[in-house]
Amino acid sequence: xxxxxxxxxxxxxxxxxxxxxxxxxxxxxxxxxxxxxxxxxxxxxxxxxxxxxxxxxxxxxxxxxxxxxxxxxxxxxxxxxxxxxxxxxxxxxxxxxxxxxxxxxxxxxxxxxxxxxxxxxxxxxxxxxxxxxxxxxxxxxxxxxxxxxxxxxxxxxxxxxxxxxxxxxxxxxxxxxxxxxxxxxxxxxxxxxxxxxxxxxxxxxxxxxxxxxxxxxxxxxxxxxxxxxxxxxxxxxxxxxxxxxxxxxxxxxxxxxxxxxxxxxxxxxxxxxxxxxxxxxxxxxxxxxxxxxxxxxxxxxxxxxxxxxxxxxxxxxxxxxxxxxxxxxxxxxxxxxxxxxxxxxxxxxxxxxxxxxxxxxxxxxxxxxxxxxxxxxxxxxxxxxxxxxxxxxxxxxxxxxxxxxxxxxxxxxxxxxxxxxxxxxxxxxxxxxxxxxxxxxxxxxxxxxxxxxxxxxxxxxxxxxxxxxxxxxxxxxxxxxxxxxxxxxxxxxxxxxxxxxxxxxxxxxxxxxxxxxxxxxxxxxxxxxxxxxxxxxxxxxxxxxxxxxxxxxxxxxxxxxxxxxxxx
Length: 568
Hints:
By secondary structure, the protein is α+β, with helices and mostly antiparallel strands. It has helices spanning about 10-20, 25-40, 50-65, 70-75, 80, 85-95, 95-105, 115-130, 135-150, 155-175, 180-195, 195-230, 245-255, 275-285, 330-335, 340, 350-360, 360-375, 375-390, 410-420, 420-425, 470-485, 505-515, 540-550, and strands at about 235-240, 265-270, 290, 295, 310-315, 320-330, 390-395, 400-405, 425-430, 435, 450, 490-500, 515-525, 530-540, 555-565. Helix 8 (about 115-130) packs across helix 19, helix 12 packs across helix 13 and helix 20 packs across helix 22 (about 470-485).
């Protein structure tokens, strides 16, 4: 049943019971009657009774396999926002659990100065509720899926605003939660409103490509089926086509035509288990030519949203280029339904799998904290987009642990991801064993080692333009405020040494490395004896002590004294 097909209460209950035997039919019927009564005088822009929308949302939630309270909340999710019903009414009629889910997806009604402020506050409210109960975001995704499928009844400016928000925020959330099918529907439905001409052109070109290549794709599939049958490997094989928005995005990124895309078609091979995946890979590589540099093993190194499969692009029958995607049945279920494939009865006490998925959204929590620090809705929304955007870079720690970060992240982001103190005390980094600037953008497969000192280093305000993650940005802003809130103290460093070539250069280098600003530098030379007075300023006396230790490592230096500097 599609998002626009007619839905009746019996369809919702049937679908709910198909996924979950512990459904409370009476409670769902009660929620439907209450919602129908509250919305009875309301119509959607299409002219249909308003109750049609919550019924569709409830059906989608039931398809996710969620529980009775979530289905009830889906039926009731607009009554607090659009009728005279209150949170207390929902709690009294049903229970606290249902009322809290409804409250979590209800938009704020107070006035805001700008649209950005309103959008930021609504997202903040939703994510705070999500951290308490994941069902809030799943219900919101179901709500958005139905709304995006009925945009044709809205004015053009609203169509564009909703489609843009869907692509920038809701589709990436679905991706982070591993809900691939939902993500694709959200993107493709938005695409036709955001770029109507490109949508029509790509749709037409794709239909022609499918027609031209169908015979060869079918023959390639048949050949694989025969080879697997010989080896007695059970598998489900299907020919699939890249989704419209993905095609558009790839063409934009690579500045190319559809003819130049190598992964337009895919043959998906679903096996019984992980071991058979690698057997299938061996058979395919033995029978087909693989295009170099296209092999990716997401089984060995899963994506950040727990997606697992083996991908490689091969040359099939009569030269047709096709991507082979190999996964087990369990991997396929997870890739389609994400978190809901793990957990059919989402409770406040989170399962291990739910916590694993929520960890992937940890950056959202950091973004909320960043907003509390800056109070700037534009900073919040832009950082949230970076955290949610589905392009990621996968790098390794020196011990071989894999870390996934938003694409464009730097060594600074990596350091703060590992630990706040590591970010605060960073002095440098090595990428693939080579010393590199800490603002270097990371690439897939990089091995990143952070070099850190024993105390916090003075942050650079320019770092804010380099980092991508909310955590790094939040910590840098916090550290800048901490430093800028302190007065700089001035110190007089008195050095006694034996003269040598480049003595002054060696001394000033140490001050530069530790980022101490030299205000005065005086020297007095008497034969081979040198007396140097250096005035520096810093907010941290510990830095002076560290510099003193480094200076004493120079053999010619005999004594160092540090005093508070008072201007005459």
